[in-house]
């Protein structure tokens, strides 16, 4: 009778071991599936982050370029205005003399 009981106990242990193996296998499969899913989600999140940073960078760069262009145009404009002022101040006396001469000689 002891041999029957021990046979039954061994059979129960074998069955329990098989069941434990199935549980562990299912857990591994679930874990691998979840890891793949997490990897896909992380890659998607990284791509969104990278895209957002690239957009911010492009906005910043274009803003900086626009500021530099505005500053350059202001400097060029100021330079041209100064050149015109200098030219007009040099020539203005001669023009006034020429106009006075023209008005005084033509009217007589």
UniProtKB/TrEMBL annotation:
Subunit structure and binding partners: V-ATPase is a heteromultimeric enzyme composed of a peripheral catalytic V1 complex (components A to H) attached to an integral membrane V0 proton pore complex (components: a, c, c'', d and e).
Pfam families hit by this protein: V-ATPase_G
PANTHER family assigned to the protein according to its UniProt record, in alphabetical order: V-TYPE PROTON ATPASE SUBUNIT G3, VACUOLAR ATP SYNTHASE SUBUNIT G
Presence of the UniProt keyword Translocase in the record: no
Function: Subunit of the V1 complex of vacuolar(H+)-ATPase (V-ATPase), a multisubunit enzyme composed of a peripheral complex (V1) that hydrolyzes ATP and a membrane integral complex (V0) that translocates protons. V-ATPase is responsible for acidifying and maintaining the pH of intracellular compartments and in some cell types, is targeted to the plasma membrane, where it is responsible for acidifying the extracellular environment.
Family according to the record: Belongs to the V-ATPase G subunit family.
Keywords: Coiled coil, Hydrogen ion transport, Ion transport, Transport, Vacuole
Protein name in UniProt: V-type proton ATPase subunit G
GO BP, sorted A to Z: proton transmembrane transport
Membrane topology reported for the UniProt record: Peripheral membrane protein
UniProt xrefs under Gene3D superfamilies: 1.20.5.2950
InterPro entries, alphabetized: V-ATPase_G
Subcellular location: Vacuole membrane
Assigned GO CC terms: vacuolar membrane
């Amino acid at each position: 009778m002891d041999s029957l009981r021990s046979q039954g106990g061994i059979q129960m242990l074998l069955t329990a071991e098989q069941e434990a193996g199935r549980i562990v296998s299912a857990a591994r499969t679930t874990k691998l599936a979840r890891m793949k899913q997490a990897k896909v989600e992380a890659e998607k999140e990284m791509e969104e982050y990278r895209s957002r940073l690239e957009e911010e960078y492009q906005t910043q760069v274009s803003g900086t370029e626009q500021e530099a262009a505005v500053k350059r145009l202001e400097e060029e404009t100021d330079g041209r205005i100064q050149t015109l002022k200098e030219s007009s101040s040099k020539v203005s006396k001669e023009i006034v003399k020429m106009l006075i001469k023209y008005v005084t000689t033509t009217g007589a």
